[in-house]
Here is the input.
Amino acid sequence: MSNSSSMAQFLLLALADRWELQLLHFWLFLTISLAALLANGLILSAVACDHHLHTPMGFFLLNLSLTDLGCICTTVPKAMHNSLQNTTAISYMGCAAQAFFFLFFISSEYFLLTIMCYDRYVAICKPLHYGTLLGSRACAHMAAAAWATGFLNALLHTANTFSLSLCQGNALGQFFCEIPPILKLSCSHSGYLRELGLIVFSACLAFGCFVFIVFSYVQIFRAVLRIPSQQGRHKAFSTCLPHLAVVSLFLSTAIFAYLKPPSISSPSLDLVVSLLYSVVPPALNPLIYSLRNQELKDALRKLMR
Here is the structure.
């Protein structure tokens, strides 16, 4: 039987073991990470430098870019290193740190997306109360609550998972340290059930946020349909629908990854699902939430000049 005191490392076995495919994975991850770093870096610079973007939405976009960068930088560099060095190893403490920071950033991002939906709801449905409901202090409190909730969620899951006794080897069928593959190695029944209960609780909380997001967008769509201008309706729908699509993709794949029955698990399926919620949303968020914003595009043009 192995536990935290005796296990030295884990093996990340999701990626192919052929050198040609490993190079392909390296270049794919490099392209995604560079695009995410460039886009989010530009957004951070634009929001920080342009006083026209010192608004509630600009403040939340800045926080969202930080979580996007955190998600990408937590998982992708190690996968790139392993592909380039033809290795699969990650140390036990490195795995624990990676699992914690990934859960921290991805949880905070989801709560920030919920808050940003509320911002759009107030801006469109209650514009006269926007300054009251989303003042600078209220925005700071909401962002702090998102980060704190993400931190607490990551701490609970990581502390519980890495306190389990492991007796099923050290091979993880993933390209980064994720909670479900580690649970498969556990031989502690009570600890496994405790972590499963935490996962179900987190899933219910995430689903509650999703219900709030859907309800808010229903109200937004009802308000948009009353806009007399067809161009205005098209602009509102083209902005809101991609937001809802990304949130739906993120939540559905994350819940599937954590709660799917073992009978339908396979290495290729697990890899695709994990990519869809851990890499794709952080890479797409700058395009969906930020670079479609006209004020932000104007600020980026000024910054580049």
